[in-house]
Design brief:
This protein has about 70 residues and is mostly helical. The protein has four helices and two strands, in the order H-H-E-E-H-H. It is globular and about 30 Å long. About 25% of the residues are buried.
């Protein structure tokens, strides 16, 4: 599956775009404009996405990559 397919599936499953989810992560203090917030590990974001949006590990990891700046 391509990275874009993962992002499309994240949006379909959550009803929110990757950018909207990044904005929520920033509001929660898990991320900032540069990527992950200082001291935050990917596991914290994965746990949040699994709990609040019922995403699987792979889809959550793809969003972590998005937050860190990956676009393809």
């Amino acid at each position: 599956m391509s990275f874009q397919a993962y992002m499309d599936n994240v949006e379909a499953k959550t009803g929110r775009s990757p950018d909207a989810l990044k904005a929520i992560a920033i509001e929660k203090g898990l991320a900032d404009d540069q990527g992950l917030a200082p001291g935050v590990k990917a596991g914290a974001i994965i746990d949040w996405l699994k709990a609040d949006y019922d995403l699987g590990h792979g889809h959550a990891m793809s969003l972590v990559a998005w937050i860190k700046g990956k676009r393809s």
